[in-house]
Amino acid sequence: MKTDYSICAWAAALLPLLFSCNKAVEPAVVPDSGTITISASIPDGPATRVAAGAKEAGLSWNWEERDQITVVGVNSSVFDIEDGFTAHQADFTGKPVAGNVFSILYPGTYGSVAEWEAAAWTGQVQTGNGSMDHLEYCALLSGVDAFETFEFSDAWATEHKGAFRQSGVLKFALTLPEGITAPESVSLMADGPVFCADNAGTLTASLSLALKDVTLGEDRVLTAWMTLPWQEVKVPAGSTLNVVVVADGGNHWQRSVTLPAEASLLPGKVNTIVLDATGWSGTGHYAGGEGTAESPWLIADATALRAVRGDLVSGETKYFRLVRDVDLSGAEWVPLNAEGSFDKFIDFDGNGKTIKGLTITEPTAYASFAGVLYGTLKDVTFDGADINAGNNKAGVAAGYLGTNKNLAPCSLTGVTVKNSTITGEAYLGGVIGQVAVATTVSDCHILNSTVTSSVDNVGGFVGVPDCAGARFEDCSAEGVTINHTAAKRYAGGFAANMNKATVFERCTVKDAVINAPSSQRVGGFVGQAGRFEGAVFTHCTVENATIQGGLNSAGFVGVNYAPDINKCAVIGGSITANGGHVAGFAGYPEGNASLSCRIADSYSTMDVIGGDQTEIGGFIGIAKGLIVVERCYAAGTVSGTHENTGIFAGRVDVDSASISACIGWNATLPFAGTVVEGAGEVKDNYAGNEGTISAQATNLGWSAEVWDLSGDAPKLK
Question: Which residues contact 542 (CB under 8 A, 6 or more apart)?
């Protein structure tokens, strides 16, 4: 189908369509053979479409060779255009379609209404000034009662009890300033997400078109065309719209317009923006802004993102906002703040956008996006990062959150890392290498990524939280692989080594693989939790982890000195022992006279494969010192040949370890493999499999305010 676009010189004419739902399809017999011919027409006249004309803004289109239409009923069929078609009339042949209600889609490459409605219009590229070859017209008749003879129009759709939808067009007619000869892109940007990026209605703050082989003539007029989704978009009165042109050498030129009245982008129309040569301002590499809190620098491409490092100033805060996804692939990234006094403050608003392909192949200090982060990093996704950290702290977002010398506030919020690889020696995390300031990291996530250490301290999310007062809230590590190739210490699905009083709340590890067979102090959540007053783990979970660990390894924490772990769970998965003190929850928990260790209202259903190793338990490997464990249960399988193997604890050692009101769900193994003389109280516990775990928990007095005891196994509320 060939499109012929006509325009109106409407300086801010920015883009009517009725929404409808498909009616229910009654059962019908689907023909299994044969072909039929259907007749499709395009309206030809001002009564049913906006004709081409100097005072009108519409589009007309003609049938052309290789056109296809998809008809969807009970089944669906693609119909091919037949020879002999005219501009506005064509026959199509395909297999029969059964049903009483139908959807008719153009082009036929869309196989279903759902696929058509999800069609995105990002990534458009125009080759040559004024070219329309890249435009794709789309039309949909939905919920109609016939398809053998039809017309793509509102009138026909209404007559046949359905609705008509079609794409629109945005045209730029811009007279650019002198000196611009080869524009590289043009964008329309708003203060907030008011435009539609796809037919599904996903909102975006910018509409962008890449330009290729565009050379301006003497009149310096850029003519650029974009396909728009089928929604009508209303831009409120008073909104400021920015037209941004990236020109020769990556320099940005901007023109701002404040709308005196509401304006619209309309489907089925050519919506035109005409700007003369006056009022343009050059903004260097940025798409606008002044680097202040009120007017952050706007980043629309890789050139602008690479310019950030040079615009940071010692002792000052500079403000930035991403306005488009940026692809950094193909060039080495240099961390923003990785040298000198480390006091270049930044407020970086990712604005929900994605930075792709961040790559550091040469080992560098604090290998990451930010280097040493001072300030705020929020609402950004890093996709496909590849970092070789060498022997320094590293993570995709930041190698170091602050330093021990400068304790200025820092924060990470809404940061996601996915499909990334981090490799180095020590202090490695998928998101952050080391935390050195009292800060809150919230709603941050890592997905489907790999972190590999050849020395020590490797965590799926963070290497080492190393400052009192740091908090992690509502964060997750999912589908992360942690490889620890050294016979050293500290590997964890979320954190390697909690080295100060840190709080973890509502954080999760899911589907992690931890390969650390020769390493000590390995945990599904944290390798070691240090002995610091104020350290808390609450409502944290490890689900379906696969762990290979050496001495002092477990499903949640390898070595635990922390004073408070409560309402935490290890759900499913397995751990294979390659050393002693291995368990489903805590391998080696230990308290002392200065700070006792407590684990309460927690459970593990992880399978523990102990082999011939010693101190193997479903919940605890070996309990030592002033440790209190209460109202916890272990319900995974436990196997091991050593005498210090128990369904709940492998060994309860001397110095007042106390375990009470706990459950080991197994009929053959003892509650504890060994309880040595001089150990603390091990009483009021249950080992067996009579009735249900919830019934036994009720008998032991577990609180219904903490636990849901309605099912066979207790769940935390």
Answer: 493, 508, 509, 510, 512, 524, 525, 555, 556, 569, 570, 571, 573, 606
Torsion, CA 582, CA 586, CA 587, CA 588, rounded to 10: -160
Residues 159, 209 within the same domain = no
pLDDT at 31: 61
184 belongs to a structural domain:
yes
What is the phi/psi pair of residue 250, to 5°?
85, 10
Question: Structurally, how many domains does the chain consist of?
Answer: 2
* Close Cβ partners of 114 (under 8 Å, ≥ 6 residues apart): none
Q: What is the band of 121 on the pLDDT scale with cuts at 50, 70, 90? A: confident
Going by pLDDT thresholds of 50, 70 and 90, the confidence category of residue 96 is: very high
Indicate whether 36 and 164 sit together in one domain. yes
Work out whether strand 163-166 and strand 715-716 pair parallel, antiparallel, or are unpaired: unpaired
Q: Which domain holds residue 25?
A: 2-168
* Cα–Cα distance, 448 to 437 (Å, whole number): 28
pLDDT value of residue 32: 63
Q: Give me the amino acid identity at 475.
A: C
Contact in structure between 274 and 262 (CB atoms under 8 Å): no
Asked if residue 42 and residue 68 are part of one domain, the reply reads: yes
Claim to verify: residue 194 and residue 163 sit in the same structural domain: no
Output the pTM of the full model: 0.77
Separation between Cα atoms, residue 553 and residue 339, nearest integer Å: 37
Residues 202 and 109 in one domain: no
Residue 138 falls inside a structural domain: yes
Q: Are residues 163 and 249 in the same domain?
A: no
Where is average pLDDT lowest: 32-36, 146-150, 170-174, 465-469? 32-36
